[in-house]
Amino acid sequence: MNFTLKIWRQDGPKDKGRFEKYKVSDISADASFLEMLDILNEQLVDKFQTPVEFDHDCREGICGTCSLYINGRPHGPDEAVTACQLHMRHFKDGETITVEPWRATAFPVIKDLMVDRSAFDKIIQAGGYVSVNTGSAPDANSIPVTKKDADLAFEGAACIGCGACVAACKNASASLFVAAKISQMALLPQGKVEAKERAEAMIAKMDELGFGNCSNTYACEAECPKEISVSHIARMNREFLNAKKDSEK
Amino acid sequence: MKKKGFYWASITEKTVLAIAGLFLILFLLVHLGINLFLLPIAENHQEIFKEAAHFMGTNPVVKVFEVILMAAFIIHIVMGIVVQVQNWKARGKRYAVYGKSYSSFGSRFMIHTGIAIFLFLILHFINFYFIRLGITEPIAGADVTAPAEEHFNELAIYLFSNEVLYSVLYIVAFGFLAVHLNHAFQSAFQTLGLNHPKYTPTIKKIGTIYAIVVSVGFTIIPLYYLITG
Question: Shortest Cα distance from A137 to chain B (angstroms)?
Fold first, then answer.
């Protein structure tokens, strides 16, 4: 398969950036999107040009490192996959593919398609943890948890923190990410104790870092590679409103 | 980045926006209920309208609600703008290929439909509410004596029968209102944390039915008088 790639090139955080067009040919329909970019980079290196910077790690769809906004959608046209699990058969032969970095004030571009997502780490540091050691797996198994709560908590825990929700949201809101992280702990006995403080602290950090508000457009849910439901956002709102209600301040 | 001094959490802002919006949603039903008596749906429909207008204009409980209603309008509009400005700032540089992700039509245009409704509201207040407050005069040709609200039926019928432009503007505004309300209804529930796998689909359906009933209900009135003249 042959493609024309329109890729965002930006030399550094302060550079203005621009789109550049590249042609790649004889790409296997079974190549992943990142493999196709690897082939492009090989070509660029052969011509003594700077290869395109992009984030990647496991290439198995579980680490949440790849972050490409392909033809107007985070992780491209396929459903419930990350860009590394997206295959070229989902594109038309000869198609022009536009590749952009995640766009959000809270995710500044480092270089080309690579953005700084440490804002997510800062939100986790604000309260996305349980303060005491809760033991190992056998200890967890000794505490009864209903199947329903366990499943819901697991759905939240499936978040890989890739930031597709922020990239897809017209407001660059981190609501789905924060909600998943709040949910996964608020639903379980070990996390419930600090649920209120956690919700307040993580939401305050999310706002401080400059993410937008949730407009309930649900584009995040549509693009989440782990298909995390917006019902977690409603739970986050409940947790927050409960925390406000019981606040002693 | 938000200032530390006066800080309202994003969810607090959204909650206030949603509660004010829900109050407006309730008010629209009352407004529509009275307005339908502008149509010849009962023999003495004009008298019923006048009676309702008299009640709304004089009842002390309604007077309190009038203040709450105005506050709800102002809060909803101001908070809507505040939230939108934050949202625009949060995106920063825009995408070259923008927004192919699935999202409902109404949800993408809340600020735009909101502005259209706000502009209509100014026209509507000049046409009716401000006359009652003595700020504006009734449109030339309409005969309105005090108390103005008890002659709003004659004024409305005169307006819709003789002024094609007004009728068209009102009908267009109800189109924007329908799009706004369709998203607003279920969105308010979600913001307040009321999402449930069993009930949320029903809430969404009620929201759509509500949006259709309100916009079609209000549209019939100018349309009827525009056609019958």
Answer: 30
